[in-house]
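Dear U.,

Please find below the material for section 3 of the report. The protein was modelled together with pyridoxal-5'-phosphate; I have listed the sequence and SMILES used, followed by the predicted complex structure.
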Amino acid sequence: MIPYGRQTISNEDIEAVINVLKSDYLTQGPAVPTFEQAVCHSVNSQYAVAVNSGTSALHIACLALELGEDDWLWTSPNTFVASANCGLYCGAKVDFVDIDSQSYNLCAKKLEKKLIEAKANNRLPKIVIPVHFAGQSCDMKRIYELSQKYGFRIIEDASHAIGGEYKKQPVGNCQYSDITVFSFHPVKIITTGEGGMATTNSKNLARRMEMLRSHGITREQSEMSKEPDGDWYYQQSMLGFNYRMTDIQAALGCSQMAKLKEFINDRHALARRYVEQLAQLPVVIPLQNSDSISSYHLYPILLKLDEVTKTKRQIFSELRSKGVGVNVHYIPVHTQPYYQSLGFKLGDYPEAEAYYNSVITIPLFSGMTHQQQDYVVEQIKQVVRLG
Ligand SMILES: *Cc1c(COP(=O)(O)O)cnc(C)c1O
């Protein structure tokens, strides 16, 4: 099966991990800050806090921004459930803003409309989480302007988007947000096995997230509310978690970061080939905005179902049976039974639902060969043309 995405691991990556295994520190050693520095440097942010998953990064980002009960968090319905769950972890209420039919990202116009209504009803969100779907940045400048007008904070869910650019700046520099979150799950652009990172330009937010990832404990005397009992003393001043990344993971992350540009270039080259090869088929290829450079985490295509005689279900299973590891990103979050139990209904976000009804993600990853790609295209041709 040719997967829709997978990691690329080199001998240097393996060496880097082995070196940590032979060293004194498997966790809380020097590899974590080195990895954090590498990400800061690459995305041009002042601070970075490494954690054990993208989901943990979203959770502590919400807590650092003091999201709590009675607050609202808004995000896109076209995302992985974690972008919304993080609000529920904090006891907040979650709502969604429908997507734009071209970029499949949270629509800034619909956001504005919803903000006007929310203001009238006294239900403005505390946090909005735009998700850079498939690696293409949302309209961050516009969303930032709205945040200034309506007084909400912004966490960019850039789980798909490390290595991408927006208005000639790297995604993650937080020019238009408080915090940006990345995921290093193996299907993402770079991997640490499991892992995540939150970047910010606020010293205060960075420090809060550092404490939240490690039990809410500090060893800094200046942060303690009383004199230490002795040199062994540490103080818990908030309720935190153990969300730490290990040095084993961080060493892999550092080694992977060194190849970020190469990975993105590979993905772009493959995406260009798809544009040519899919041109004559009854599918819509993902539109690219001129003010951003996608990291091409995913390659979602829309099936023109009125031009083919098969259903999406049939096309999907036929491709799988031919060894093409297609997938679907995403089942709209509000249609999940758990979210329906909170009161959301089918029909609430029609663009996300219409998109879901015709989308299939086809394989794209650094290290995919032209031969594999040609095979994928040939199978799509046969499946959508025949019968
Ligand atoms: C992968 C992903 C996450 C969660 O990241 P993990 O590292 O798997 O916890 C969150 N949001 C989006 C959009 C993702 O794709």
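For the text of the report, you could mention the following: The CA atoms of residues 136 and 235 lie 42 Å apart.

Regards,
Y.
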